[in-house]
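batch job 7 of whatever, protein = Gamma-crystallin M2-like
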Amino acid sequence: MKVNLIPAPISTKFNFKIFVWFISLYIMKILNLNFQVTFFEDRNFQGRSYDCMGDCGDFSSYMSRCHSCRVESGCWMMYDNPNYMGNQYFFRKGDYADYMSMFGMSNCIRSCRMIPMHRGSFRMRIYERENFMGQMYEMMDDCDNIMDRYRMPHCQSCHVMDGHWVMYEQPKYKGKMSYFRPGEYRSFRDMGGMRFTSMRRINDSFY
């Protein structure tokens, strides 16, 4: 007796999930490709300009100085030294006619890094001491003071599992800051030995 094998139908719900996933990836790719910031040599958007659409480790090839910028889209981390070194500053969409006065900076921007848009959950583990030692807490949302929430005075290492974060030296998201993307950070010594006490997610609301 001949038996005809009929393939089992693929779940419509499963197909829809795959479709939504691909569309989300496509939209995120477009948004990230369209990130743009324009840097100007002088204050108030004067002088020579440079349009940047991605990471740039050194502005010296394009301009001798930078005293103002216009963030057309996206979120960016700016650095006052080449190669993503030195003090860090978080910029979102807007005009910065004199950012040095606004942020109290003594040096102008020398390099920048685009912060990709992240959709989904955020997760990070913070540790009291270097090399993931001491007290550990897992975070999934913003924290304006880890001492108040966890009775931890500061953290000196972390593991970012999901999302992009900015951590601050002082409570209430104040003081020096550093950008953290997914990865393991065993020590903050190369960040000037900073001890972070507050941190926030870079979520959709910033874009």
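notes: The first helix runs from residue 12 to 33.
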